[in-house]
Structures are given as structure tokens and as C-alpha cells.
TrEMBL record:
Keyword tags: Cell membrane, Membrane, Transmembrane, Transmembrane helix, Transport
InterPro entries listed in its UniProt record: Cation_efflux, Cation_efflux_CTD, Cation_efflux_CTD_sf, Cation_efflux_TM, Cation_efflux_TMD_sf, CDF_Transporter
GO biological process, one term: intracellular zinc ion homeostasis
One MF term in the entry's GO annotations: ferrous iron transmembrane transporter activity
Cellular compartments per GO CC: plasma membrane
Signal peptide: none
Matches recorded under NCBIfam families: CDF (TIGR01297)
Mode of membrane association: Multi-pass membrane protein
Major subcellular site: membrane
Protein name: Protein p34
Family to which this protein belongs: Belongs to the cation diffusion facilitator (CDF) transporter (TC 2.A.4) family.
Superkingdom of the source species: Bacteria
Domain Cation efflux protein cytoplasmic: 209-286
Length: 298
């Protein structure tokens, strides 16, 4: 079992623990704001299950029906998580409206707040771990899960502040008001998760910084050889895999063996920095050049 899948399973375990604590806080207090917080944790558990399933599919090797692999399965998981977040937010808004119509004092608010705060600390620590390792292993599903958990932490802090103000002032209408704010925050988070995942499903290119890095690697690897230029560089990403393809212009008299060796060196240089890269190089004769004199990228 690889580390990314172990982290996803860890998210499920942490999500169940946090959900249990927040549900207990809600049951003790009857707070709509704490209910909204618990409901978001229920979404976290469902999302963790989706991530585990997606990661298992994404790791399958390429086959005749999927010659480029199954890497995009992770993006579908992230889209599903975003949809679940939106559904949860709409449910919270409905319950908050009922709370506005009939606000009431909370039961055992301090104990409920303490339990909720403990659950939020667990969530925060796990969110940082997921984001850090998701970026390290280039897993959009783990990064999306971590960002959602961090949004959950922010929401929880706001909920605790709101309940504290309600206790101090006696304005119990602050409880459903905080639930509304949590719902709006969840909606924004869900849109961010969906938007980020759709970029991968639409074969969006890598970031400008990463593209500049790729340009530099190709230029350096080819500069001491017979290559004239590289052009028509294209990239896309699918989970941890970065697809790179470009045209490499070489003198017409270059042998196939020489051209092949250079392509191997360029590919090795790219994979030294991007281990999961898939590189395709199309060799062209000199008359196909778009520039001259140096190895350039356009």
C-alpha cells in the first residue's frame, strides 16, 4: 500500500473520530451552528471514502481501453467532494431558516464548545499533513481533502466565537446566524474544489512556474548537443502525472541513434525533476525550425 493511499485511509479514520465528537457536541447543545459543523464532517467522511476509491482506480496500470492510464480518477473524486459540500450547505441553510423563526437557548453550551474545539484541533493538524503530502506526491485528491478540512477548521472557529457571543449577550438568534455563515463558507469551499478539479479534467496546462522549469530543463539538456531548437511545447496534468510533448529540431544529417540518445537524455533530465512525467518528443529536420542558432522554446 503506497503512502498516498495510507493517508487517504487515515483521513477516513480521522473523519469518523471528528464526526463523532462534533455530533456529540451538537447532541449536548442542540445548536444549529454545531449541527452545521457536524454535517460538514459527515461530508468529510463521504469524501474520504471517495478519495480511497479514486486512488485505487488511479493506480491501475494502463490497459487497452485506457492507454494513458487511470490518473484522472482523482479529479472525479474531488468533483464529487465539491458536490457533496454544496448539498450540505443547502441543508444547513434550510435548518438555519427554521432557527431564525424560533431561536432558543442552548443546553450545556460550554461542554459542547470544548468538545467541538478538540475536534477542530485534530482536523487542523490532519489538514496540514494532507496538504503538505498531497503537494509532495502530486495528489489533487489529497490536496482538495486537506483544503476542505482547513476550511472546516476556520468554520469551526467562527462557530465557537458565535456561540460564545450568544452566551454572553443572550442573543440566541446568533446561533442560526452562524449556521448561515458556515453554509456560505462551505459553498465557497465547494466551488473552489470543483473549479480546481475541472481544470485537470479539461487538460489544463501546468502552472507558469512549472512550465518555465520544464523549458529550462529541456534547454540545458539539449544545449551541449546537436539540437537546434525545441518548439511547440505542450503540457497537461492528470493527478501526479505530468504529460509533456514537444518537437526537437536537429540537423538533417543526424543519425537516428544520435537523435534517440539525445531524446533519452532530455527525458531523463525531465524525470529527475518530475518523476511521474510522461515525455513524448517528435524529432524534426532542420528545415522545420522556427528559430535558429540556439536551443529555444516557443
Amino acid at each position: 500500500m503506497n503512502r498516498v493511499l495510507r493517508l487517504a485511509i487515515g483521513s477516513l479514520i480521522v473523519g469518523l473520530a471528528v464526526l463523532s465528537l462534533k455530533a456529540l457536541a451538537w447532541a449536548l447543545t442542540g445548536s444549529l451552528a454545531l449541527m452545521s459543523d457536524a454535517l460538514e464532517s459527515l461530508v468529510n467522511v463521504a469524501a474520504a471514502l471517495a478519495v480511497i476509491a479514486a486512488l485505487r482506480v488511479a493506480k491501475r496500470p494502463a490497459d487497452s481501453n485506457h492507454p494513458y492510464g487511470h490518473h484522472k480518477a482523482e479529479f472525479f473524486s474531488a468533483v464529487l467532494e465539491g458536490v457533496l459540500i454544496v448539498i450540505a450547505a443547502l441543508f444547513i441553510l434550510r435548518e438555519a431558516w427554521a432557527g431564525f423563526l424560533d431561536p432558543r437557548a442552548l443546553d450545556a453550551p460550554f461542554l459542547g464548545m470544548a468538545i467541538n474545539a478538540g475536534a477542530s484541533l485534530i482536523n487542523g493538524a490532519w489538514a496540514v499533513l494532507l496538504i503538505r503530502n498531497g503537494r509532495r506526491y502530486r495528489s489533487p485528491a489529497l490536496v482538495a481533502d486537506g483544503r476542505h478540512l482547513m476550511t472546516d477548521v476556520v468554520s469551526s472557529v467562527g462557530v465557537l466565537i458565535g456561540i460564545g457571543l450568544a452566551i454572553a449577550t443572550g442573543w440566541w438568534i446568533l446561533d442560526p446566524a452562524m449556521a448561515v455563515l458556515v453554509a456560505l463558507n462551505i459553498l465557497w469551499s465547494g466551488w473552489g474544489v470543483i473549479k480546481g478539479s475541472l481544470s485537470g479534467l479539461m487538460d489544463e496546462a501546468v502552472s507558469d512556474d512549472e512550465l518555465d522549469e520544464i523549458r529550462g530543463i529541456i534547454a540545458t539538456a539539449a544545449s551541449d548537443d546537436v539540437a537546434i531548437e525545441a518548439h511547440d511545447l505542450r503540457t497537461r496534468h492528470a493527478g501526479p502525472v505530468t504529460f509533456i510533448d514537444f518537437h526537437l529540431v536537429m540537423p538533417g544529417e543526424t543519425t537516428v541513434e544520435t537523435a534517440h540518445d539525445l531524446c533519452d537524455r532530455i527525458e531523463a533530465a525531465l524525470m529527475a525533476v518530475l518523476p511521474d512525467a510522461r515525455v513524448t518528443i517528435h524529432v524534426e529536420p532542420e528545415h522545420k525550425a522556427k528559430h535558429s542558432g540556439i536551443v529555444v522554446l516557443s
